Every structure is written in C-alpha cells, then in structure tokens.
Amino acid sequence: MSTYDFAQHLALVKAESTYGTDPTVAFEDLVVLSGAPQLTPLAGNWRSREYADGLAGAKEEVLGSPHGVLSLAAELAGASAAGVAPQWAALLLACGFAETIVADTSVTYAPVSASYSSCAAQVNIDGVDQEHFGVRGNAVLEGRGGEVPKLNFAMLGIRQAVAAVTQPSGTLPTVVRGKEVSGVNTTVTLAGTALCVSDFQIDLGRSPVFDDIAGCREVRVNSRAMSGRMTVDLPTIATKNLIEEAVAYTRQALVLTHCVGASAGQVITITAPKVQMKPGQLANRNGVLSLPIDLVITPDSGDDAPPPGHSFRMIPWVAGWGRGPGPQPDNETTGATPHADDTQTGNLRLAGAGAAPARRREVRHARLHRDLQGSLQHSFHGTDGCP
Fold first, then answer.
1. Could you give the CA distance from residue 136 to residue 70 in angstroms, rounded to a whole number?
2. pLDDT (tens digit, 9 = 90+) per residue, 329-376?
3. Under 8 Å CB-to-CB from 102, ≥6 apart: which residues?
4. Which residues pair with 368 in a beta bridge?
5. Which pTM was predicted?
6. Helix (H, G, I), strand (E, B) or coil at 163
7. DSSP labels for 85-113?
8. pLDDT of residue 172
C-alpha cells in the first residue's frame, strides 16, 4: 500500500480581503516554518444522538461546529528590507492586528478591538491537502538560551474538504534567519537592572473561539490578556530584591533586546513598561540559584479590553535615526501621526530625525508595539552591527 511522506510538508498563508472568502493562495504565499505544521483536519464537538431505540450499545454521534486547528511556528526575524512585511505577517494580522505600510520606510502593526483581519491557510503534506478560510488565533513568543526564539501560532479556521492535490512548487522566498538567544545576541533588563535570563515567553493573550450558530460561522478573537514568564539567575539582594518587589506589587519596565544581524530591521526590542512579577520556587540551574517568574503585562494607563485603549506596533524604519534598546521616552516631533490609541501618552516615535545615539547608529527600525497607553512594545531595529 502506498503511503505519504510526512517530511514533504509546507504551509501557504495569505490575508483575506473578505472574511471566509478564498483569496487564492499561491506558492509565493509560502511561510518557511520552523518545524512541521501541526494539523487537526476535523475538530469539533462530538455528541451522542442518544436514541431511545430499546437497544444496548453505543449510539451514533453527530459532529457540531466542525473546524480545523493549525499550529505553526516561525523564527523571530524581520524582513529583508524596510517597508516589507515579514513572512509571518498574515498570521500576526489574524491574531487581532492591523497593518500600515509606508513604502521603503515602515510596516506598522497595531491591535484592534473590532474589524479583525483573517487569513487563508493551506497545508499540504506530500499531496494530502487541506485549506482553511477565516483563520484567526493567538501567538506566543518563546526563547531559550542556545535556541532561536520563535513565534508559535495557534489558529482555528473554517475547514475545507481534504483532497489529493499536487504539492505547489516554485522558487523559495528569501527568508531572514534568526539567531540563537545568547549573552552576545540577547539582553534583558528590569527597571534598568541587567538580568541573566535562561528562558522567556510572551503570550499575546488572544483566546480564539470557533463560533458556529444559526446565521453565523466565524473564528472570534474578541478579548486578550497578555502575560509572560522568564527564569532568571537571582541577582544579589543589594542589586535587586526581586522577591520583595513582588511582595510590594511593584510594576516596572521589562526590556528584552535580541540581535538577529547587521541588516535592516535586525535588532528586536521588546519593552513592557508595567509588568507585575509572580515569583515561583527557587531552583538550581547549573549550580546557580535561579528563580522562575510569571509576568502579568498590565496597562500603563487605559483599558486592556474593548473598547479601544491599547496599541501594539511593529514599525520597520528606513530613514533617520531611531532609538536604541531600553525604555522609550515620550513622542518626539517627527512629522508622523501617532496611532489614535497612543494619543493619551504619546509614547511612540514613528519616525526618527534627531541625533544618533553615541554607541549605535540606527539605520532601519521596526517596531512591534502594544502600549495600552504604554504597556508593551516590541521593536525591530536595524543597526550597523549586533551589540
């Protein structure tokens, strides 16, 4: 009997212009994954018909809300040029974000509380093909020492029939390769104090639900609650008393910087200005006293739920001077208009025009930012080299 080769797998993803409508996915929509896609082609709620037929034994079951479940992972890396969306853009859009592109300058992603984007996803494993429309979901960023950080997407979609389809082919796209988390590539600070971090995670906090009722069939991502975790080598009490700061409910800025390369958009900075810590059990990491910490990523001001009062942006920059890693100052005069959700505190600089930092010249800048008027921002910086 013939079998299928699991190693022959690929995923094509394309943003939809109309929810649940086929945007005609092609090979150029290939997303170069990190690891194999995980696909549940027929998910839903099986329920017994519970026939009262006077017969013993199991009863036939009916499937409610049939849909598809996809798990896809991609390395955390930017695009090959400023003003060009990264290869995983359509997936991020489908996690409750909007995109603004300025040619040769920037790509901006901001969270929305209505009019959610969606995408189509086609998974083909050696000719076993299934398409999904109306795909939406959640993403989690994970990193660990010695490994390349990844964006893990957990998506739901309106399933289409499984079919035998010749696997699409063509020229593979140019993909920026990620770099491993290390002491050279990665830094983490908490309220300005440098920490040694062996692993970290940031969860964008969406909870996708497949809603299949009379007159409506849709994947919903209406709410979110961002969170995270990290494991740190416990600093000296004199340097920073993490445990007692947690007792005092101290919320402070967490900044993670990861260098991918010297090209445009290759330094990734994640800044969460108001993070609450929940320490776990002290542990032994290679003979060093370590502490796992759960993170509650709270608003700086505003409301982290619909209606609006939040933003999360990614902006690749091409001209002018950006800002280096670290907590970001208030808006500077740039000639750009902040997103409506940033007007209360104006903490996002959309274009650089001032003096360069002493240590580093920012040539390209990409920012993935959600501030809840300042609660979290992710930035992709292009520099003359890694730190």
1. 10
2. 333 333 333 333 332 222 222 222 223 333 333 333 334 444 333 333
3. 83, 108
4. 109, 378
5. 0.78
6. strand
7. --TTHHHHHTTTEEEEEETTTEEEEEE-S
8. 87
